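Dear colleague,

Following up on yesterday's call, I've attached the two folding results inline so they're easy to grep. Please treat them as preliminary; we haven't cross-checked anything against experimental data yet. The first protein's sequence and structure tokens come first.
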Amino acid sequence: MTRLPSHYRRIVLQRFAERFTDAIEIVDTPLALPKAGEILVRNHWAGVNGVFDDRLARNRVAYMPVTPPVDIGIECVGEVVAVGDGVDSLRVGDAVASTRLGNGYREYLCVPADDAIAIAEPSPEILTLIPTGISALVALEQVAQVRAGETIVISAAAGGLGHLLVQLARLKGAHVVALAGTEEKCAAVTQLGAHRVLNYRSEDLDTIFRREYPKGFDVAYDTVGGAIFDLFVEHVAIRGRVICSGYTADIEDPEVVSRTRIYTQLYWKSASVRGFMNPLFPEFHADAARRLLRMYADGQLRVLVDKGDFRGLEAVPRAIAHLLAGRNLGKVVLRLK
């Protein structure tokens, strides 16, 4: 049996502040053994969600109100190091994933065994699939309703979510148009199988869309907002769907918009704009996780993990800054072991 330490460290949001580093503290905490029905996990990797973490520290996540002090960090993968009475589904040494606010930015985690997802290994690739891959698959199936033969355009296609959307849409038989912001990112998305890749910083998207996709896009999947969202609405096809899965361009001031009353564009096409937030679709998560893990094991999915070297809880602010600056290629992860 692994010898357990007497204490472990976790990040606690102690107060709201404009700077993430001013809002949090790394707290040394006594390690308790799991109670009946619980497991104790040594976290190996945690996901970094820069926009969410930054806004949570500033008390600007309206849909998830918190009162400091509160543990933060969401998705993590690790190894079971102790089990409580009555736990038969997991054993010491098993690898598990967990996704809930407060689970990620900590070295050890005690959770109900039923809340953990058994995985093959605690790797950053599997961390990316759960929950980011779950978001991509559920969004494509339940909201975008992508079908074979349709054309989809995806913004931020080289990000943690976007690179999985590209592959999953292609696996469903769609023609995939991907947008990215650097030549390196465009090359990476091309290798993932996108049929057309465009650098939105250097190419005239409107002209290219009109010339190459005159009928518009059946699905336009956007996480950026701003001018990209406006362009997607303009180029959505008859009976097409524009998916709003975030709006980083406007997130600080959502009241400032470049276009209003989009029904003037949607009505004549019988098109629609649909919002997607993964936590509101919990009934689809378990099935999506099973299928994603199987696809990954079968070699159908490649997972891009950002090459940034972020080790230990002290690296979280630096990882968030890396993400907010748009320097990431793939999922940004934190190494905890």
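Below is the second protein, in the same order (sequence, then structure):
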Amino acid sequence: MKEAKKKIENLGGKILEDIEKKVNPNIDIPIRTLSNIVYDSKTRMLTLGGKSAKRFLFHTGHAKKFMQTMLISAFCKDLIDQNIHTSLRDLFYALKRTLPNSNENTFDEQSESNPIVVDLEVMLNILREQLHLNADIRGRVVGNVVISDRGDTVDLSKLGSGGWAIPSNIEDIKFKKVNADYILVIEKNAAFERLHEDKFWQKHKCILITTQGQPARGTRRVIQRLAIEFDLPVYVFTDLDAYGLYIYSVIKYGSIGLAHVSDRLGTTNAKFLGLTMDDVDNFNLKNFTIKAEEVDTKRAQEMLKYKWFQKPEWQKLLKSLISRKIKAELESLSGRGLKFVTETYLPTKIKNKDFLD
């Protein structure tokens, strides 16, 4: 918290110095487009390159965004000073107003304020959550884990059928007890609920985490913290389509849009458990696949070019998605029986260490 406040104050101090020197006040913002994303083969993470762009106060094309950046910076400092947290939606409404003697609004839509928050995060090299800004809750956990959350002790093995809902900000969460051999990350809620109801996490001494689709930042941070702090393997279980494979890569390497925080969100020891095209053949799932749409094929073709998907096994899988024009959802395993996933598929894959890395 002190670090974030200090960095905001330094940003404000830099602007004041520019004014005193009679220099056009400006801020330097790293570029977040694909052209400035670098895959570091040593760290196995996506990072930002060295390209940046200046944003000036006295510039017709920059003035509004410059003003918006300062508004959000001041707002975040107030949040830190008051030790309160708020949502991105609340921030938008708190700062939305019409400028005096004009028809110009500070923000017209939240699509304007959200990117400015990321700009600030990149400039200051801190997590959004350190600015006391939270996103919607998405992701759940169950397992033999005990945490401390704002003074409350929570046992994640005793939360009924729902599991623990992962908050956006987990920086102050303390893990008091973790008794597991590995973490199983599941894309779909339905598959998570099947595994939870069958007590897969008890029988196989693991932690179950559902991302509920593309993983939220809080979920990615939980996965990374558990993996690093307790030296746990991470296995990712997604649909067999380009979007499922990309969910895995986001968990492992980081994402293009958040490459600036890959070191705090990426889990480099994560391995892909499935579904794969070999699974379709080996587990007799052919009758339970569905036809791929054009958007699926196009996405797979794009991913073929990504440097972090250049290993032969990934190239083979992506090319098979394109050539066979099929995909398979996690729910397709239910075609072999509702307990097939818990009693046959997952135990077999994990026992044989049938992973992609």
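For the second protein, one point worth flagging: The chain has two domains: 2-134, 140-351.

Best wishes,
A.L.
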